Amino acid sequence: MIPSFEEHTHELTKYELEVLLPLMVIGLKTKIGQDRVITNPEICRALKSQGYEVSEPRIRKLIFYIRKNNLVPKLIASSKGYWVATTKQEVATWIESLESRISALQETYEYAKRVRQQFDNEYDNF
User: Residue 28's closest CA among 74, 87, 94, 79?
Assistant: First the structure.
């Protein structure tokens, strides 16, 4: 669970694990190749149209679980959506994207630490 995002990042519920997860695994296994890409909003709409309760943040949580447990081998993503990779180059491009995002988050983290230090310095001066 991520602090300040508890509503969206709490552990998967029994409903999500037993009902939504199997549906997503079945559906994502059909998305072989970049031309079969599916977006988070599309997954959400498809499930909701069948009467399932789900949100985009919970789809991301389910995708994380699917990847962590390798339930859909080679499941990758881009800004275009999710799909099962068919080439090593697709995976390499995905890794480059992840590295860039990690770097940007690291810069934000360093900034946050400087902000905290500014507050510490202000209180030290009282």
Answer: 74
